[in-house]
Amino acid sequence: MRAKADVPSPRGSVLFQSVIGEEDGGLGTLASVLRGHVGDGAVVLEPTRLAVATAQAGALNFRLTVPGRAAHGALRHEGVSALENFMRLYEDLMAFERERNAAVDEPRLAAFAVPYPICVGTVQGGEWASSVPETVRAEGRFGVGVREEVGAAREALEARVAAFCARDTFLRGHPARVEWWGGQFAPCETPEDAPIVHAALSVARDLDLGGGQVVGVPYGSDLRHLVNAGSTPGVLFGPGDVAGAHRPNESITVRELVEGARAVALLVLRFLGCCQPRGLSPTSSR
């Protein structure tokens, strides 16, 4: 109670949102934003190792359906393997990824070797061990640049697949199909002069976290709904490392959790004017 009494009254309120659907498009956050749950600043607890991220890439789920022609496995040369067609298309997509990332000019993503990845996460095909596979379906995510339009990104992938098919003897007459499904994460960014960014950076510097500089991340998050649909400037700021996410034993340590809770609590207090960065008194000008 004594600690509470020593803290000045906040200049605003805090809304904690625990929502569903983040992994598959962020419908929970979007629904919350559309209900009017917006504000002067937002903190999204993505695993940034407590670095202050002001930019995120986009990520669009896609599905490829690659055709072939079935035949008895004993006479496989009479068929056309959809698997082999897919493998060649996949190699072309990896070349496309290299081309898209060769000229990335975004300093906040400089730490990542591939800021805008193309990742194929599932591949399914064939009906029987002794048959040439007639169809292969593959699903993945297509990385979108921080300032790239979602529609332009979709068109780029569709055009690349179409161009590959046009060069192939079989696929020219039986082109692969591209579909967009599930999570469609648009990119977003927050201006570095936004008050929430200043508050987060002051906390990071005072607690010696994340280098004290703004960064970007190569993945999509719910921040885009708050920024793009809710006009709420925000940052990604949380404990843990994305390198340990979406894989076995995804976790953070108790120490990271405690450190993160402390940092977020201080950020909230500082943003609401309850405490000052080091070296500044409540009456100091900034």
Describe, in plain words, how this protein is organized in 3D.
By secondary structure, this protein is an alpha/beta fold. It has two domains: 2-56 and 188-271, Zn peptidases (Aminopeptidase); 58-185, Alpha-Beta Plaits (2-Layer Sandwich), CATH 3.30.70.360. It has seven helices and nine strands, in the order ααβββαββαββαβαβα. The protein has helices spanning 2-6, 27-34, 82-102, 150-167, 195-206, 223-229, 254-271; strands at residues 42-44, 52-56, 58-67, 118-125, 135-144, 177-185, 188-189, 214-217, 234-236. The strands form three sheets. Strands 4-5-3-6 form a four-stranded antiparallel β-sheet. A three-stranded mixed β-sheet has the order 7-2-8. Helix 5 (195-206) crosses helix 7. The radius of gyration is 24 Å and the shape is elongated. The model is unreliable at 279-286 (pLDDT under 50).
Layout of helices and strands:
Layout: H1 2-6, H2 27-34, E1 42-44, E2 52-56, E3 58-67, H3 82-102, E4 118-125, E5 135-144, H4 150-167, E6 177-185, E7 188-189, H5 195-206, E8 214-217, H6 223-229, E9 234-236, H7 254-271
Parallel strand pairs: 1-9, 2-8
Antiparallel strand pairs: 2-7, 3-5, 3-6, 4-5
Helix pairs in contact: 3-4, 5-7
